[in-house]
Write a structure and sequence with these properties.
alpha+beta; Nuclear Transport Factor 2, Chain: A; eight-stranded mixed β-sheet; Ketosteroid isomerase; isomerase activity; isomerase
Length: 148
Amino acid sequence: MGVQVSWDTGEEQPPARRAAFASMTAVTAGDKEGWLALFAPDAVVEDPVGPSFFDSDGKGHHGREGIAAFWDKTIANVERFEFTIRDSHAGGDEVANVGTITTFLPGGYRVDTDGVFVYRVGDDGLIRSVRAFWETERAMATARQVTE
C-alpha cells in the first residue's frame, strides 16, 4: 500500500488529532498491528455510524478483537487508501476531521467517501472511539473504474 495522508497541520497538535493522523498513517501503510496498538482495549469503532453492511446492528466494533475483525472485513480488502483532511476541529479529548477517504479497490475501482471522522482519546493518548459519519449511497455513487 502506498502512503498518502494529505493534511496541512503544524507541529504541536492536540492528542486526538495526533491519534487520528497516526491511525490514517497506519491504514495507508497496511500496518494492522500498528493500527490496533493505537486503540485502548475497550475501544469502539463505528464506521459508518449506524447500521451498515459492515455492522448490521449498528452498534460498532468493540475491543481490539472486534476492531481487528473490522480491519479484516474492510481495510484489508482495499489496495490503497488516500486521506485528504480539509478541516479539523479539536475540543477536549476529541477531534472531528472533515475530509475524503479515497479507496482503490481490486479491479481498478476507486471510491471517494466524504465524511466527518470523530476520534476520542483517553489521557494515555490511546483511541477510545472512532465515529465515522458518511453515507454509503453517496460514497457508492462515486465508484468508477480507473487506470493508474
